[in-house]
Each structure stands twice: as structure tokens, then as C-alpha cells.
Write a structure and sequence with these properties.
InterPro entries: PA1571-like. With 62 residues, this protein is an alpha+beta fold. The chain contains two helices and two strands.
Length: 62
């Protein structure tokens, strides 16, 4: 995910139409600006984690 391409939710026209897109958290960019965490961002992160998931190795019994 490219954090630099994201706009803060409070500065986006989209949030005025769909306020539920912000889920309550924020990221801080390199300039100290806040970037609201949206549901879309969380869904994308979950998909990326799911693609990287590897089952744990079985433990050896003692």
C-alpha cells in the first residue's frame, strides 16, 4: 500500500458523502500529516496478509 498516495479522510470529498469510510484510526505521514484509516485500507491489508499466510510447522513431541 502506498501511504503517499492516500489523502486524509477529513480532507477528502468522499468522507462528506460516506463518513463511514473512516474507521477511527489514523496514520502519520513523513510530514506529520494525519491519514485516516479506511475500511478499504484494512480490507487490502487483510488480503495481503492472507496471501502471505504459511501454516505453522508441527511441533515435535517430547
Amino acid at each position: 500500500m502506498n501511504v503517499h498516495a492516500l489523502k486524509p479522510c477529513r480532507e477528502s470529498a468522499d468522507i462528506l458523502i460516506h463518513p463511514s469510510h473512516c474507521v477511527g484510526g489514523h496514520l502519520i505521514d513523513e510530514d506529520g500529516g494525519e491519514i485516516a484509516i479506511t475500511e478499504q485500507m484494512i480490507q487490502q491489508a487483510c488480503q495481503e496478509l492472507e496471501q502471505q499466510w504459511v501454516p505453522a510447522r508441527p511441533r515435535f513431541s517430547a
